[in-house]
Write a structure and sequence with these properties.
The structure is a homodimer. Chain A is of the alpha+beta class and about 325 residues long. Chain A has nine helices and eleven strands. In chain A, the strands form two sheets. In chain A, strands 1, 2, 3, 4, 5, 6 and 7 form a seven-stranded mixed beta sheet that branches. The first copy, chain A, has a four-stranded antiparallel beta sheet with strand order 9-10-8-11.
């Protein structure tokens, strides 16, 4: 069985379309993995790439991608709202199928070592790949950003995990890591009231006493003129989507609101949807076929979970 | 303002009614505190006493109570299903009003020291009053029970917090501690299916990924022939009763069950009920008066939360 991972490199160019195309070119037309999306953000001046597929093929393409980024981006002239330490800022490896989180930590080590050796770019290992407690969280690593890292890296506690204590003059440095898969999930509310939306987010999020594997907060959607509870589900087995949806639904009722709709950002595993579909089929006392195909899963998920902008392509299993 | 605490001493006699009356006599007819209940359990051979009121008056009465327990109970001849280390087994102090948990820790220290000095009974400080990590949890202290403690107390790591390493020949030893108030809350389900009831308990309890301040499990009620989700709510502000009730309700729907009823065991603060009543009044878009009296609170709580065996006397504020 091929080892299937997700990899979500972020690079520090979100405005120049032609440059962006050149930078992501190494990810195109590879039969062993797919580039599911690349989403530039002009304010952030940053692009998020989502790759899924066979691990070694993704890793090979990453080196070409780093080389193009070195050629295309000079961090001395890059400005944007998103904090960043390098032309490629962060590379996380995420286990998907027939691969463990520990193996993803290994990929981070291999890729980190090679980037340092081949390109003279210092590498920090983060998240589950971190070797020091203060490198688990990206914001701690990023503090001071590209400009500050020139001196920060000379402090003994910020000696890089690979490479030497000297940032690359135009690229900077890069964080490479491994983490578990998470579902990015948002629930749309028919309101612009941030305070009440925050109250609902607090009902479900771990940090306020809610569910163990939920991070959540309020967000206002400018274009659509309403609030949403935006969240990460860190364990979709222990905190299934339907349960979060139903709690938000009954919490919203105290303000006489119905949930408008909901969205999955990025990818979702088939099982996460099936678990929730099963709940609603049981409630309705209707048959549930766990072997249903992805089209059927898509239709049920849209119906029961009020998903908008959803299609089969958002299900991981559509790609592997 | 008087410092109001709850104190729940447990003693090791649950069968001989006359003895029990003599042991609880020091708690009767005191104007500064009330003995809300004393509940003997014959199988356990143990009685749980619930006191509420002014701290110093409760503490004074505790010393008389210890003296009577010494006279009435010989642990060398006591047998029962509940593990125990002494004639009085455990004395927890719980903050209720105008008193902090730290002050309750102080009460535990004062009472512990006096019991050791006046009666030559060794004292272990537990829960928030514990001075060693392995004394936080009662089961660890109780391991070996009255009989085993005779030798266990001679081990250096089990030297008592007050007194010397020698159990009282007939009384044994006692655990004295402090903890936060908790709401003991059970939800009745129309089923005898333990597996499905456990699934519902797992949806809400912290240890399975659920709400942060909920401990829950399944229990079968012999007399009533149905299961319940039995739980402790360790923080009723962050995990309000209505939220737990509504989650159990929608989880039960997948089995086509309606929640039958629910119960509060022991006491509940007025605010815990008001918060939940407010939720349902808002959902129904009806007025909510936070200054309503205890009779009204009782009626609403029974109506909205389906409480059985509930009366005003279960509300803490009825006693202070």
């Amino acid at each position: 069985m091929p080892k299937i991972i997700e990899c979500v490199p972020n690079f520090s160019e979100g405005r120049d379309k032609e440059k962006i195309e050149r930078i992501v070119a190494p990810f195109k037309n590879n039969s062993a993995f797919k580039m599911i999306s690349y989403e530039p953000d002009a304010d952030y001046n940053r692009t998020v790439v989502t790759l899924i597929g066979e691990a070694q093929s993704i890793i090979s393409a990453l080196y070409q991608f780093i080389q193009v980024a070195i050629n295309e981006i000079d961090m001395n002239h890059q400005k944007g709202e998103h904090p960043r330490i390098g032309a490629v800022d962060v590379i996380p490896f995420i286990p998907i199928q027939d691969v463990t989180l520990d193996e993803c930590v290994e990929y981070a080590n291999i890729v980190g070592e090679n980037i340092a050796k081949s390109f003279a770019i210092p590498v920090f290992l983060y998240a589950k790949a971190a070797k020091k407690p203060d490198r688990v969280s990206l914001p701690t690593i990023r503090k001071g950003e590209f400009e500050g890292m020139i001196d920060k890296i000379k402090e003994p506690e910020w000696y890089p995990d690979f490479g030497v204590a000297k940032t690359h003059p135009t690229f900077g440095s890069v964080a490479v890591g491994a983490r578990d898969f998470l579902v990015a999930y948002n629930i749309d509310l028919p309101t612009d009231n941030e305070k009440q939306t925050t109250q609902i987010a607090k009902a479900i999020r771990q940090s306020s006493g809610g569910f163990q594997y939920i991070q959540a907060g309020p967000a206002y959607l400018e274009a659509q003129k309403h609030m949403q509870v935006t969240m990460n589900i860190l364990d979709y087995v222990k905190n299934p989507i339907y349960r979060i949806f139903e709690v938000v639904r009954f919490e919203a009722r105290r303000y006489q609101w119905d949930v408008k709709s909901a969205e999955i950002v990025g990818l979702v595993p088939k099982m996460a949807l099936l678990d929730s579909i099963k709940y609603y089929r049981q409630v309705e006392d209707l048959p549930f076929d766990k072997a249903m195909d992805l089209d059927k899963i898509t239709a049920f998920a849209i119906h029961y979970l009020k998903l908008r902008d959803f299609s089969k392509e958002k299900i991981i299993e559509a790609w592997i």
